[in-house]
Specification:
Elements: H1 6-17, H2 23-34, H3 44-53, E1 59-61, E2 64-65, H4 69-80
Antiparallel strand pairs: 1-2
Helix pairs in contact: 1-4, 2-3
Length: 82
């Protein structure tokens, strides 16, 4: 498995906004990189972004996500400037 790029992470977030990927799919994908004993990501900025994205599917209450589309748009803007 190769290290993802910042652009790939942003692209996945945009696919969530377009309802082409679920929050769970993207959070699970990001978690594969951050929840490992053998770090696969050497770029600390990318690792930090993946850490945030791995929590995308966090629920505030049953059926209600902690992060909504506005949060995802804010993340995209913030991550684009890193």
């Amino acid at each position: 498995m190769r290290e993802p790029t910042k652009k790939e992470i942003i692209d996945k977030l945009e696919l969530v906004l377009q309802n082409k990927l679920t929050k769970e799919e993207v959070a699970d994908w990001a978690s594969e990189y951050v929840m490992t004993y053998d770090p696969l990501v050497t770029d600390l900025v990318v690792f930090d972004i993946l850490t945030v994205v791995s929590g995308l599917d966090t629920l505030e209450s049953p059926g209600e996500y902690m992060y909504d589309d506005d949060d995802i748009r804010d993340w995209i803007k913030k991550f684009s400037n890193k």
